[in-house]
Amino acid sequence: MDVRWEDFGWERLAGGVGRRRLPVWDATVGLVAGGSAVLLYDTGSTLREGEELRTQAESLLGGRRVTHIALSHPHFDHVLGTAAFPGAEVYGAVGVDSLLLRDRAGLRDDAIRHGVPPEDATRAADALVVPRHLVSGEWTLDLGGRQVMLANVGPGHSRHDLVLLVPGDREIVFCGDLVEESGDPQAGPDALPSRWPAALDRLLALGGEDAVYVPGHGAAVDAAFVRAQRDELARRFGVS
Predict the structure, then answer these.
(1) Does residue 155 have a cis bond before it (omega within 30 degrees)?
(2) Residue 2 — pLDDT band, cuts 50, 70, 90?
(3) Of 5, 23, 79, 166, which has fewest CB within 10 angstroms of its CB?
(4) Going by C-beta distance under 8 Å and a sequence separation of 6 or more, which residues neighbour residue 86?
(5) How many CA atoms, within 13 angstroms, populate the side-chain half-sphere of residue 225?
(6) Under a CB-based contact definition with an 8 Å cutoff, are residues 129 and 104 in contact?
(7) pTM across the whole model
(8) How far is CA 71 from CA 22, 89, 140, in A?
(9) Is the dihedral of CA 223, 229, 235, 240 positive or negative?
(10) Quick check: 185 and 217 in contact, CB under 8 A?
(11) Region of 87 on the Ramachandran plot (φ > 0 left; ψ -120 to 50 alpha; else beta)
(12) Integer Cα distance of 27 and 237 in angstroms
């Protein structure tokens, strides 16, 4: 089935592993298929986008449905499509559940400020799914013949940064917005700049020198790129 991924606008990274760069904000969504379960990393910016991702994932995988979702961080362009995957087990960094519950309106308003049609933003916020499984350190998931690891390496870009590591001939690391390639890393009001370089140190320690690092926005990069971005963030924010 992997040979068909490009026909759907997906980039194949390894057997059963791929990602799609979504339009408008160039946010990455990752997909990992095991023998008995399928994990999606982030879900897009609207229910409409989430529904399209669900349809594509099922087409790519012969009708198999997404069973697990991991949310990289609680920004609208990464979480508002989650309700399009009914029955999926949803994972997030510890504390992200209470944040999403209390800031549903803020998430909707942020989406509208960035150009999401108000009716789409409201529909997605009203249906917002909060992670039930909270990761405080590392959590290994068995997808059936393929184990992946979720790691809470933040805070940095947000207070709730969760990365996904997929072992293989070359480890694939989905970084969320801790790493960005298509533009400078964005430090919004919920970022912790003083701790961001340390988060990238942990990311590099987990992934290693030979891994493929998949940013939250932009093309896949190597460890040298992540290290250079870590050093630039340290310089930019005056931390070591």
Answers:
(1) yes
(2) very low
(3) 23
(4) none
(5) 20
(6) no
(7) 0.97
(8) 15, 11, 15
(9) negative
(10) no
(11) left
(12) 24
